Amino acid sequence: MVKHNNVIPNIHCHKKYCESSRGPLKVKLSLNQAGKKKSRRLARAAKAAAIAPRPLQLLRPAVHCPTQRYSAKVRLGKGFTLEELKAAGLTARYARTVGIAVDHRRTNRSTESLNANVARLEEYKSKLIVFPKKRLSKVKNGDSSREECKAATQLLGTVLPLAKPSSDIVMGDVTDEMKTTSAYTTMRVARKETKVA
Questions:
Q1: Has residue 187 been placed in a domain?
Q2: For the whole prediction, is pTM greater than 0.85?
Q3: Residue 90: how many CB atoms within 10 A of its CB?
Q4: What's the average model confidence in pLDDT over 162-169?
Q5: Residue 192 lies in a domain
Q6: Which residue range(s) make up the domain with 95?
């Protein structure tokens, strides 16, 4: 018998890690992880080759994360709002054809975020190379020149990635006024004034 006042061992070994005559495998194994990784990489490469010279990803807006805890963080969102596209002089139908993600559900709650995403769209438009519908047709209004089309290369990464804020500490100069001022004395005087009043 086991010593001391311990829990009586009563483990339930019901998970089957190998197939047997009593039943099939009950635990899902990921022995194909390396193979799947290779398959995904080859699929991405095949898609990039099929849509070349278009970029592999769509242009996404800069959005703030939900809730008060994470609202200071900015990340890439699902798609641009209809208001942002209108301010940038684009229609939702045309935007989808030139690699811009559109989200008709999202709404703008601040002018700052609206202006930031409009500026993002304007930057994308300035770098955009629009090929004619037919390769040998004449260059129409809105299409890029033949030289630009020939020089176009495919972008494989994130389209216009967000710039990370610099983590450098800015050092300030200590002035004579800072040296003479006593924060402790200022706090004590303010405390006395509130007591008197």
A1: no
A2: no
A3: 20
A4: 88
A5: no
A6: 57-151
